[in-house]
């Protein structure tokens, strides 16, 4: 089955700096890669996603890049703000969407 | 507003008891999922259901049971056979093959 690895497990940045979280996957059949943000005590919320036919996608301060050859994808947050502090999860799934495989999460701390 | 409702938010279980976690969605989604989240770990799939009256085991189904009698509802029972049930449980749903999950706000289960 699919194996998703996520790094780093914790990330501390100063407000206004950029943050990058990286994930690798093992199954070349995976073709959909969502990112979720989870605040303390809440369920994860989808913040951005990318499909295998696209190399990069942006939504305001958030971007995701995908390298299919290397089987890795990354989340980029620019101009970080304290409200970006949360745990971020990457995930991967093949097109049947039967199962999503999640990374172990990155705890992002944005210091004011 | 459409969404997924999990209840209760907090649940305490005594040794040897079965407890049932509720998950209800009004999104008209076909597929529903249960995940377990432990500190510092990613989300692990317990059970999923793609259609009413049908469900499949995920990666850690032992000690859990589910039912899917209605499209809107996917309750999870944590049985006494689950020896380490203390965790945060997340329910999710998805409506089509075009997007990611919508998550509920979770139930924190503690053995007392």
List keywords for this structure.
heterodimer, A: 112 residues, mainly beta, 6-stranded mixed β-sheet, 58% strand, globular, B: 112 residues, 4-stranded antiparallel β-sheet, 11 strands
Question: Could you explain how this protein is built, in words?
Answer:
The complex is a heterodimer of chains A (112) and B (112). By secondary structure, chain A is mainly β. Chain A is 0% helix and 58% strand. Chain A contains no helices and 11 strands. In chain A, the strands form 2 sheets. In chain A, strands 2, 4, 5, 9, 10 and 11 form a 6-stranded mixed beta sheet that branches. A 5-stranded antiparallel beta sheet of chain A has the order 1-3-8-7-6, with no helix packed on it. In chain A, a hairpin with a 2-residue loop joins strand 6 and strand 7. The radius of gyration of chain A is 13 Å and the shape is globular. The termini of chain A are far apart. The model of chain A has no long low-confidence stretch (mean pLDDT 93). Chain B is mostly beta strands and 112 residues long. Chain B has no helices and 11 strands.
